[in-house]
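Section handout 9: paired folding examples.
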Amino acid sequence: MKNLAEQLRNGTQLLGKYGLSSLTATGVDFMAFHVALSWLVLPAVQSTVVGRSVGAAIAFWLQRQWVFQQVQATHKWVLIVKYISGVLLGMGLNVVGVWLLHNLAGWQPWPARIFSALIGWFLIFLFNKYVVFDPPENRRSINYRT
């Protein structure tokens, strides 16, 4: 059994890697949004869908390959469906959070959005760790690394 200090260190490293993957995916999302909006001359909503889709694909790839190291995981399509469920859940958490904080609690829009995004990001990290990438059926007994 790992001691508490080692568990905290591993958890912090994992959260840091997840944060870097999220920032990278967000940067790609915004670049794809800009390309769709400026070069492909798509409307803002369609450009948002393009950017978010490309960003989510990059996030999935980084998290599967690097963050949670589930390259050898079986059931790839199950991972993808679970991951997309998490993306939709995260979107819903953000919308509900902004609605609650802005409309009911009276917060200004940006603080409500930022706080909701941070809470949603952490909850989706937990969802990805425990539901998408870490169920026993994804583990290979020899290659599995925590």
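Moving on to protein 2 of 2.
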Amino acid sequence: MPSRIVEAEYLHYYNPARNSDKVFNIFLVEEDDGRYSCISEYGRRGTSLVRVVVCSNKSRPVAERAFRKKLDAKRNHRETPYWDSRAGSGQSPYAQELVARSVPASKISTPVTADPIQEQKRAEGRAVSGILNQGQIDSLEI
């Protein structure tokens, strides 16, 4: 039996004032031998995410405790509290990698997920150009 994700949480943090757009994903994984691991990945949206093994080869209660502790720390962080992400597994290379290993290649379909930040910007009527401070005077222009 290949490794499988038992529980997963997909979070994001977005603050345009700080130019911050980050994702944090955490997984409780049942390994081939019946033991459990807790794996997280984080980084700026659209970049390669950093993968960290929070705990490995533990009993389920120990791995779940590590999973909950890390998840609560991210959700309740004083300066950068993370929220649930609607993008889900579409933003996670690790989740896609596990699915690809457990499902024959002919059965894999890539989910089409929209970026919630881009949707929010479009809904506000602003064009998404990727240019910071567009329409504002820059010190170099004076």
